[in-house]
Every structure is written in structure tokens, then in C-alpha cells.
């Protein structure tokens, strides 16, 4: 029986589900269980990790606190890289991350506890590239993204510094491209570096922002700006850019395109699970996430919910099932 997952197994299962199931509709699967409160749940839940998941964790926390008035949820979202250390040191009950744990992070945890950490897929995100609402760029290839953001340009592109080099005319043609991104503590920073920059290095001119909302707001305030962030942070004043990878068609980051969009990813939550059973407070919070009520909050935050098949797979990793509801 599966009691915990290596990150490789988790990723394989999620990718398998993505190819077998349809995500085109942003609706909660009626086959997911409804959450029912239980007696005696009280205490403090601490969460440290992903800025991308800050809003989602807050939405889950608010609903959970409504169900259990004697529960307090404390959330700190400074970046995915803070989650593994917090789980290892025991300073957080949950570690939300927008990327899988690195081998070194897993090894540090295992050295202390003699078992691996567990990461659960909670929802689906699309990492979007944003430009100002008045920027008419119709699409970007991964090679062009690499030429814009990377100093090493492993994708084979020439250096791209102006909008005119991307075919824009008029006022924007001669404008230098303003670059906005996350800092190195962010899982989004690492994911974009791996996928869009072909594991190359960022340019020194990328203006690193403390959070995803700040990236998008910076682009909204800068006609020549471009930045990357989770789709859930889209605001008025910006537009998302369709992307194309390796000669494929341009794909916009919409819910209808989630299975074909080249920067789709799973948002994860880490937990210290010893393979036996979860403490009641942790157990109930996880049950809530995978309930109909929990996945409604996923949609509210602009992400894509899991269906019943996926939820069952994730619950298995902490020895839970729909029969526990």
C-alpha cells in the first residue's frame, strides 16, 4: 500500500491523470465528497511556503475557520523554497509549493525523520506571461522568451531587448523591454527558469519582485513591461500572451487549454506524514481541501480544481479515502 510518495511518483501520477482526464470545464466534480465537520477539532495550523498559493491557502483557511471556530490558521507566503526547511524544522504544519521539492530538500528532511516528506497535488495552475493591456504582441515562442529574459540564451535565440525586435510597430517599437520576475526563493522563479529559459540564467536587468501580485502590478504600470506569474494573479491592466513551444501552435492560458498549455503545473502542499496516521487537525484540513467545498475555493482563486479520480489518488498518499468523509 502506498503510504507516501517520492516526488517522481507524484509527478508521474499527476501527468498520467492529465492525459486521461478532461480539465476543460472549471466546475467542481459532483463525485467529490462533501465535507462534514467532526467533533473536537481545535488548535493552530501553520503554513509556510509559496507566494503563488497565498490567496488559495487564505481562502481554504477562512472556510475552515468558519467550520471550526476554535481553529486558527497562520499563513506565511515568502516563496516555495521556505516550505521544505519549515517542514524539516517543524515550524510549519503545511508547506505549500508551486514546484516539486529538490533532491537536497528531500534528503535533508529524510535525514532528520528517516522517511521522506509527502507532497500532494491540490489544484492546477498555468504560469502566464503578462504584458500591459495596450501591448498588441500576439504571441511568444519559448525561444523568444529565452532571448528576452535569459543572459545565457540556451534556447538558441539572439538577445532581445526591444519590442521592435519582436515585430511591434509604432510607439513600442523602439522601447526597451522592462523585465519583471520573482526572486530566487520562489518556486515560480525556478519553474520559469527551468521551462522557459532552458535551465539558463536570468538577466541582471530582471526586476525581482517580492510576490506574484507585485509582478503583475508592475507590468500593469509599465507599457513596455513583461513579467511572469500564476494565472490566478491576473488583474485589469494586463493581458496574457499565448505561448508556443518547439514549433507548436500558440496556446493561450485559459481553462479550456490547460492540457495543452506549455506552462501548466500542479500546486502542491507538503506535509510531514510518517506513514501511519495524521493528527486530527491536519487530517481534517486535508480532507477539506479535497472536498467539494475545498475545490470550490480553487475555482474562486482562478485555478483549476481536481476531479474525483485525482483527489482519490492524492488522499491515498496520506492513507485517507472518500470513506473517511
Structure, described:
By secondary structure, the chain is an alpha/beta fold. It has two domains: 7-124 and 264-324, D-Maltodextrin-Binding Protein, domain 2 (3-Layer(aba) Sandwich), CATH 3.40.190.10; 126-257, Periplasmic binding protein-like II (D-Maltodextrin-Binding Protein, domain 2), CATH 3.40.190. Helix content is 31%, strand content 18%. It has ten helices and eleven strands. The strands form three sheets. Strands 3, 4, 6, 7, 8, 9 and 11 form a seven-stranded mixed beta sheet that branches. A two-stranded parallel ribbon has the order 1-2. Helix 6 (187-195) links the parallel strand 6 and strand 7. Helix 3 (82-89) runs parallel beside helix 4. The longest helix is centred in the first third of the chain and has 14 residues, at 7-20. The protein is elongated and about 65 Å long. Mean pLDDT is 91; it is low at 1-24. This is Phosphate-binding protein. Belongs to the PstS family. Residues 41-293 form the PBP domain. It comes from Blastopirellula marina DSM 3645. Residues 1-26 form the signal peptide.
Amino acid at each position: 500500500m502506498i503510504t507516501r510518495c517520492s516526488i517522481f511518483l507524484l509527478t508521474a501520477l499527476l501527468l498520467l491523470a492529465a492525459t486521461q482526464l478532461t480539465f476543460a470545464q472549471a466546475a467542481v466534480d459532483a463525485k467529490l465528497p462533501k465535507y462534514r465537520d467532526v467533533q473536537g477539532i481545535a488548535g493552530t495550523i501553520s503554513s509556510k511556503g509559496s507566494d503563488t498559493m497565498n490567496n488559495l491557502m487564505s481562502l481554504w483557511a477562512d472556510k475552515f475557520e468558519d467550520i471550526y471556530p476554535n481553529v486558527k490558521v497562520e499563513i506565511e507566503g515568502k516563496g516555495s523554497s521556505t516550505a521544505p526547511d519549515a517542514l524539516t524544522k517543524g515550524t510549519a504544519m503545511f508547506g505549500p509549493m508551486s514546484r516539486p521539492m529538490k533532491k537536497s530538500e528531500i534528503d535533508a528532511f529524510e535525514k532528520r525523520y528517516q522517511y521522506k516528506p509527502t507532497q500532494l497535488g491540490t489544484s492546477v495552475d498555468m504560469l502566464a506571461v503578462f504584458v500591459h493591456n495596450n501591448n498588441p504582441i500576439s504571441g511568444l515562442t519559448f525561444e523568444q522568451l529565452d532571448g528576452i529574459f535569459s543572459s545565457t540564451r540556451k534556447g538558441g535565440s539572439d538577445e532581445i531587448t526591444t519590442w521592435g525586435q519582436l515585430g511591434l510597430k509604432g510607439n513600442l517599437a523602439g522601447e526597451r523591454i522592462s523585465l519583471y520576475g520573482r526572486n530566487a526563493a520562489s518556486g515560480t522563479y525556478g519553474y520559469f527558469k527551468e521551462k522557459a529559459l532552458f535551465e539558463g540564467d536570468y538577466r541582471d536587468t530582471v526586476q525581482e519582485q517580492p510576490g506574484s501580485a507585485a509582478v503583475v502590478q508592475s507590468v500593469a504600470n509599465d507599457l513596455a513591461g513583461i513579467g511572469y506569474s500564476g494565472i490566478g494573479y491576473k488583474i485589469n491592466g494586463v493581458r496574457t500572451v499565448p505561448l508556443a513551444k518547439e514549433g507548436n501552435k500558440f496556446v493561450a492560458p485559459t481553462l479550456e487549454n490547460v492540457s495543452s498549455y506549455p506552462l501548466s503545473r500542479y500546486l502542491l502542499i507538503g506535509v510531514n506524514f510518517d506513514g501511519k496516521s495524521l493528527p486530527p487537525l491536519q487530517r481534517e484540513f486535508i480532507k477539506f481541501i479535497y472536498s467539494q467545498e475545498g475545490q470550490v475555493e480553487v475555482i474562486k482563486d482562478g485555478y483549476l480544481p481536481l476531479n474525483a479520480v485525482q483527489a482519490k489518488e492524492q488522499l491515498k498518499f496520506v492513507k485517507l479515502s472518500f470513506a473517511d468523509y
